[in-house]
Known about the structure:
This protein is of the alpha+beta class. The protein is built from four helices and eight strands. The strands form three sheets. Strands 1-2-3 form a three-stranded antiparallel sheet. It has a three-stranded mixed sheet with strand order 4-5-6. It has a two-stranded antiparallel sheet with strand order 7-8.
Amino acid sequence: MLDWNDLLLTHPAPLSETCSEAEYLARTSESRTRFWPVVDEGVYTGLMGPDGHVLSVPPLQAAQHPVDALAVASAWQVDIVAVCDRNLWQGSYKSQDEAEGVRVVAFSTDFVAERSVFRSFARLDQPDPTAALATLERFGCTILGYYPKGHRAEEVEDNLDHLLHYLDL
């Protein structure tokens, strides 16, 4: 099972509003992100982008579900979302290279009280969800269903045909 706390990044430390361009470039090349949280005496003030300006991207609150970071990242077109306890910086959620070039177009999450689980629904900008499904499974997610079936369903059907042929021998 995926533990969301494992995704909260606290190192390297965030930037200050007075950081130099060289410091920003060094940090972004190290972390491979275009944006980086700016923190002044522990208080989150925004995300610094490639142009050196600090954007007022709202942070995710520590009590919010980490999946809400997808909505913030998509709306602001950033690759990192700060996590705060009120306005005090706690860490960041960062998109990884495992994104497979997939963009989330719509996302919702429901809590199923009887089973004590979250059920999430995502709409992607891909006609074939195979790569996104593989990524989610690597992160420990259980896939209950998806549409369209794409190459993955064809592979499963081929594997089933091979198994049935083998069992008939």
